[in-house]
Specification:
This protein is an alpha/beta fold and 435 residues long. It has two domains: 187 residues, no CATH class; 160 residues, Rossmann fold (3-Layer(aba) Sandwich). Helix content is 45%, strand content 13%. The strands form two sheets. Strands 2-1-3-4-5-6 form a six-stranded parallel β-sheet, with helices on both faces. The protein is globular. The relative contact order is 0.12.
Length: 435
């Protein structure tokens, strides 16, 4: 069996690039990965070793490599989706709520209303008012993402789908066609042998944040809770990642009285980030609304044995309670403020939470387990694809023999037209003027 691995490959854009790089050595020990590409052209990454060519090797009919498409809620995934529309394959869905990706698709297509039409196609007329209001109200936009995650347009052509949370699995199971194979796996990560020892009596307690900064990452809420402390300087926060709104963040930090204790590093190389994680005491990984992701950042924090603040929703709500510091959505700022105060008064207990997170990572997020399950699932899809192709060929021959008499074609015209409409991979069917 051969695979084509199609994923964003620039770690400055997405953690999914690091996921691909980390998983590939293990996966290549199980299957032949014929190519690794990001759908935008360019050279293959240096971490992928192309399979050695075999002289005189010929590929059997029907054994073309199975595409494995990685879809997330970032514009760098748009070319991946466009390839997936043209050739069915296995879709690894890294986010459940893909409204942002649909908006990028709308912009590229020159059809500003397209994402709205896709929302109505998935959920029907009940979301019409909320969808329209979401363009003018951030509260309505958050409610829309939380209650109605958009994903069907991005998996409708899939031979099978892999997700990384029960939250996503349940949503897809309820809406995918019943025959579509669906698999839940635990996102893989290679844990460190032993994290650095930390002195939780030191001041300030150092917090870190990694990733893309958006409204759903709850930094402003953290600033507000932080500012409630009698001595906010007992805590310091460093931000890493693609951070485009630095001045805005500094203004909010100043408003809540914590700007002097905030440092924005932005994107840094892997070694520098790892050093920062090992010297930190806590991590921040709050999300509301969740996009349905299983967090690669959280796996990185666990690998560093960092106690982490997470919002008790989606995948974050599924992880064991003793491996993270869960913050309720309903009492978010109060919960954060109480935790910060408690961390200053009794910090050592939080080091045990970080250690249990590392143990959970080692037990449940092994790259070997993930690669074996993914390879097995891909093999099943290849067998199904070959079986369907054989049935198709037999069916075409049978219909052709029956249709020598032109009058018999009437019997099959409806079925043929339906099949063409259903399996045409380049078409996203839209109702015109639905808004």
């Amino acid at each position: 069996m051969k695979l084509r691995w199609i994923s964003p490959l620039d770690p400055r854009e997405t953690e999914i690039a690091r996921y691909s790089a980390g998983l590939m050595p293990t996966l290549q020990g199980l299957v032949e990965v014929e190519s690794v590409e990001d759908a935008r052209g360019g050279d293959a990454p240096d971490w992928w070793a192309p399979p050695a060519a075999t002289a005189g090797e010929s590929e059997a009919v029907g054994e073309a490599p199975l595409p494995v498409y990685h879809i997330g809620n970032n514009p760098c995934h748009l070319p991946v989706h466009e390839l997936a529309c043209r050739e069915p394959g296995l879709v690894v869905l890294h986010d459940l709520s893909l409204v942002d990706l649909a908006r990028y698709l709308s912009h590229d297509a020159g059809r500003p209303e397209l994402w709205k039409q896709l929302m109505l196609q998935q959920y029907g007329d009940e979301v019409r008012g909320l969808v329209n209001r979401s363009e003018k109200s951030s509260a309505d936009y958050i409610e829309m993402i939380a209650r109605f995650p958009l994903f069907l347009p991005f998996v409708q052509n899939a031979l099978g789908v892999v997700v990384h949370s029960r939250y996503a699995f349940d949503a897809l199971r309820d809406q995918l066609a019943p025959a579509t194979p669906l698999l839940q796996l635990s996102l893989p990560f290679l844990a460190r042998e032993e994290p650095a020892e930390r002195n939780y009596q030191a001041r300030p307690l150092r917090f870190v944040f990694c990733g893309h900064v958006g409204a759903n990452r709850r930094l402003l809420e953290f600033f507000e809770a932080w500012g409630r402390l009698e001595n906010p300087g007992a805590i310091a926060l460093e931000l890493f990642g693609n951070i485009h709104n630095r001045s805005e963040l500094q203004q909010y930090a100043a408003h809540f009285g914590v700007a002097d204790f905030l440092h924005i590093s932005g994107y840094v190389e892997e070694a520098q980030l790892e050093k920062a994680l090992q010297s930190a005491h806590f991590a921040i990984n709050l999300r509301w609304p969740t996009m349905g992701e299983a967090s690669a950042s959280q796996l990185r924090y666990w690998s560093a044995a960092l106690p982490t603040l997470v919002t008790d929703v989606g995948w974050y709500g599924e992880v064991p309670d003793d491996t993270v510091c869960k913050i309720s959505r309903q009492h978010e700022i109060d919960d954060i403020a109480a935790l910060l105060q408690d961390a200053l008064l009794a910090p050592d207990k939080y080091s045990h939470i970080g250690q249990r997170g590392l143990e959970h990572l080692r037990a449940s997020h092994r790259a070997q387990d993930y690669a074996r399950a993914l390879a097995s699932f891909a093999g099943e899809l290849v067998e199904r694809r070959l079986a369907f192709r054989a049935i198709d060929q037999q069916l075409v021959s049978t219909i052709a023999s029956l249709c020598e008499d032109e009058s018999n074609t009437v019997l099959f015209r409806g079925a043929i037209e339906t099949s063409v409409a259903t399996f045409e991979p380049d078409t996203i069917k839209l109702e015109e003027d639905v808004l």
